[in-house]
Amino acid sequence: MTGREEVAAVWRIESARIVGALARYTGDFALAEDLAQEALAEALVTWPREGVPRNPAGWLLTVGKRRAIDVFRRNSALEERYSVLAREPVEPGDVLWDPDRIDDDVLALMFVSCHPVLSREARVALTLRVVGGLTSDEIARAFLVPTATVQARITRAKKTLEAARVPFEVPPAAERPARLGSVLNVLYVIFTEGSTAASGSELIRVELAEEALRLARVLVRLVPDEPEAHGLLALLELTAARFPARLGPDGEPVLLEDQDRRRWDRAAIRRGRAALAHATGVGRGLGAYGLQAAIAECHDVAASVEETDWERIVLLYEALGRLAPSPVVTLNRAVAVAMARGPREALSIVDGLEDGALKGSHLLPTVRGELLTRLGRAAEAREELERALRLCGNERERTVLRRKLSALG
């Protein structure tokens, strides 16, 4: 492994703790992130030339803290804080955390980077940057936007947090449930984009999905008594378990009914089911992520599409629709109804969505085209699938739609 690769590996693992420790010491989230980036830049120059230090994380933290002292030295208004920092030097061999314990610094980072004052796009970018350790280039590639756009989002986010005087801390217990929802939503958005890319030439962006999964595992360790954190982790594990069978040798999508279930990741399924059992065992009833995980479990434990408990999936979607109503939930319920009771009943549900929020999405005509095909209404099905093809932004999904159109003759 080269020096630059060593830097990247250490940064991906330790960046959240480094930024968190610097934020705790300086009391300034935006400054801490800048200081950590400066330490990273110095490591990229120094380590390839002089070798990787014995304690890489301690080295990065030391450099970051020295940069903080330089900043405070230049700012006479913060002389007292500089004095406090100067009296508490960090040696390269020291570590400011127990390596066997994830402390509140990482949790505070998650809550700050997912603060409700930020837009969803800003939360995603900031979370991937400061908690996930991804570079602006990596985030830009993941979401198919220019690097400058990502950098602007991060800069605006830090300025917004500063203007709103958001403290670097884990919120009080009374505020935690509402704020936790924002953290969970960001991880869900990141994973969703990774598992089924909205646009581009790849169906699955595995690295992005895996990053969301890694952060969800961290979050569960930080808030072990929160059932929805376990519910989200279960959903991500159970969904990612099917990744190995979702693509053919040429990278083309493989539909659920055609997947080789022997290729599904059984270890991920076990982990997902254990997380779901934990969420269920709390006794408060499953939340939105837990219900989606229960649906994913139905798929993962079934030997085939035909043997899937579609009636249970319908019931779970009905519960999800009451708890977190959305057109996508209704559309997915229609798909389950089609499998459980036939396409005619499902089509009436889909028809009710025609003038709603999914009007400009390829999902609605895709499902409607499939239902019309099953009903033998080929001409109408062709019209719907052609509309879906025009609206779809992902080239791999467009290939599937072309195959369906070709099958209509």
TrEMBL record:
Keywords tagged on the record: Sigma factor, Transcription, Transcription regulation
Source taxonomy: Bacteria, Bacillati, Actinomycetota, Actinomycetes, Pseudonocardiales
Q: State the family named in the UniProt similarity comment for this chain.
A: Belongs to the sigma-70 factor family. ECF subfamily.
**Name of the protein in its database record:** Sigma-70 family RNA polymerase sigma factor
Residues forming the RNA polymerase sigma-70 region domain are 17-76
**Every DUF6596 domain range:** 179-279
Question: Which Pfam families does the entry link to?
Answer: DUF6596 (PF20239), Sigma70_r2 (PF04542), Sigma70_r4_2 (PF08281)
Looking up InterPro entries in the UniProt record yields: DUF6596 (IPR046531), RNA_pol_sigma70_r2 (IPR007627), RNA_pol_sigma70_r4_t2 (IPR013249), RNA_pol_sigma_r2 (IPR013325), RNA_pol_sigma_r3/r4-like (IPR013324), TPR-like_helical_dom_sf (IPR011990), WH-like_DNA-bd_sf (IPR036388)
